[in-house]
Amino acid sequence: MDNWDDMRVFLAVARAESLTGAAPILKMDPATLGRRITRLERSLGASLFVKSPQGYALTDLGERMRTRAAEAEAHLVLARDEGQGASSGLTGQIRIGAPDGAANFLLPQVCAAIQADNPALEIQILSLPRVVNLSRREADMAITVSPPVAGRLSVQRISDYHLHLATRVDGPAITRRADLKSQPVVGYIPDMIFDKELDYLGDLGANGVQLASNSVAVQLQMLRQSGVGIVHDFALPFAPELRRILVDDIALTRSFYLVRHISDRQSERLNTAAAAITRGLQAEVARLEKIARLTDTPVI
């Protein structure tokens, strides 16, 4: 490659696997990107991508080049971080990928506090109904509910969190499992559960869901209308119409993990941000779960 700009264009298209996907990242139109890739391939005398209506797939040469280009990018990021210095506070942009439970009910408060302490910092929260792909640099770090078992990644357990069955405060009295049979179940769309830790039907003993969404936030809105469903304790303070039920009978515990690129562990800036996010999430989970326990409504 002739310069860093060529590398930046190549990496963006390789990660997005399409010109249209890379265009907003680079703030360039797809036609211009196509010309840039064609020019780059001509200068190399070889194809980097196999083009099709489905997108841009890397050739063997493209795969090898992406590995080297990503390594160079990581070194440039480290050099930039060292140049910024640690005493001036966090600066630049940090993108955090997270499942939508954490993205909706935890990260907004945590990130707002971190940004207030670091006014030159831009924080982006990427909420996706799937595992965030760090190898394609979709984010700088990710919150997950299962530790990854593959890839050059570092994994740190953040905190346990708890889930219970919930229903409307003014709904029918439910004092035993048998009472659940008369209520519609709210939960995930079964074939869109992207992590086994999100499959709660076995714990609930239900055969299926009558009101379903791939979004935790939408499920919470469904429960505000009717039905029963498994809810994060930390989400309940945002839905005062709901109460926990069968607390001693149906109780789930899951964990959040912070996942990062191995190479980013050398970045003081990202280490500082990761530590702040970890502390913030631990405190926010504890705070919101305490509120959920204190506001349990007894069934009379």
TrEMBL record:
InterPro entries: LysR_HTH_N, LysR_subst-bd, WH-like_DNA-bd_sf, WH_DNA-bd_sf. Pfam families: HTH_1, LysR_substrate. Residues 1-59 form the HTH lysR-type domain. The keyword Transcription regulation applies. The keyword Transcription regulation applies. Belongs to the LysR transcriptional regulatory family. This is Transcriptional regulator, LysR family. It comes from Yoonia tamlensis.
